[in-house]
Amino acid sequence: MNITNSRLREPRSLSVRRIGSALLEVLLAVLIFGIAALALSRALNSVALLAIQSKQAGQIQAEVHSLLFEYGFGVELVEGETEIPSNDELVAYRLVIEPVEMENMEGLVLPDMFKITINADWQESGQPQHFSAKTLCYAPLYK
Hints:
Blueprint: H1 2-73, E1 80-84, E2 91-99, E3 102-103, E4 109-110, E5 113-124, E6 127-138
Antiparallel strand pairs: 1-2, 2-5, 3-4, 5-6
């Protein structure tokens, strides 16, 4: 009887070990897939954040170029620095007009030559950001 008992117990204990081993494998697989899913979601979040920041920077650059054209060639140029009103409360625009002494090919000084700069300052992810665009303008051409 002792032999029969041991034969009956052996398959039973073997199947419990197999079930326990399979359960452990499934738990490890779920853990690995969970870690991979978490890493993927963090990566996608980073990509989305970068896309939003890039879009915002592009919009600011387009606005700076638009303001440069508007203030550089559409108004009377007077030396100085001026804050430009903005629809976006998060971005501060500043116009800087400076006289420039330049000579033409004949060596004659060009009067009313100005360097026009538009500066944009804003915060992005807690870091200060800056963008500027510059041009030269010969005022008599645009009067």
